[in-house]
């Protein structure tokens, strides 16, 4: 794992353990006209700064955010490859459970992680994390399996990036 991120993974797992909930959860069935403040963190503020700082590769231009189908997506293009982070905003717990389970089936789970209110590492080194009525997907499959100097393992990078976002996710 990247230096300093192992403590962050532990802190994120403890700070956002299962059963915690934000005070700002929206009512069941509510759809947003735009992304929540916590979703935007994957492309702005602390989240963006942390992702850029922890990537052992040079950023090529400004990250590109997009909002469609209740999903906020941020694409980072680095010299080593492309990182795509997305947050799906769901109306309630049952929809969140179903979406999280569908990603587990579609992407395949190889390891359970202690981040957010449930998380797993996929067969392709992506990370899926749920918190409240949101699901974060960190996809660095367009990076080589090992990159940077000293070499970083892709799965360590995606776990670290997910933990970094969860450590500052406000739930709003």
Search tags:
172 residues; single chain; two-stranded antiparallel ribbon; 32% helix; 5 helices; alpha+beta; Protein Transport Mog1p, Chain A
Please give the largest β-sheet.
7 strands, antiparallel
**CATH topology assignment:** Protein Transport Mog1p, Chain A
First-to-last CA distance? 29 Å
CATH class: Alpha Beta
SSE pattern, N- to C-terminal:
HHHEEEHEEEEEEH
Count of alpha/pi helices: 5
The total of beta strands comes to: 9
Shape: globular
Low-confidence stretches: 1-29
Q: Strand order of the main beta sheet, please?
A: 1-2-3-7-6-5-4
Rg is: 15 Å
CATH architecture: 3-Layer(aba) Sandwich
**Mean pLDDT over the full residue set:** 83
What layout of secondary structure does this protein have?
Layout: H1 5-15, H2 37-40, H3 45-54, E1 64-68, E2 71-77, E3 82-89, H4 93-107, E4 109-113, E5 119-122, E6 127-131, E7 134-142, E8 146-147, E9 152-153, H5 154-168
Antiparallel strand pairs: 1-2, 2-3, 3-7, 4-5, 5-6, 6-7, 8-9
Helix pairs in contact: 1-5, 3-5
Structure description:
This protein has 172 residues and is α+β, with helices and mostly antiparallel strands. The chain has a single domain, classed as Protein Transport Mog1p, Chain A. The protein has helices spanning 5-15, 37-40, 45-54, 93-107, 154-168, and strands at residues 64-68, 71-77, 82-89, 109-113, 119-122, 127-131, 134-142, 146-147, 152-153. Helix 1 packs across helix 5 (154-168) and helix 3 (45-54) runs antiparallel to helix 5. Residues 1-29 have low confidence and may be disordered.
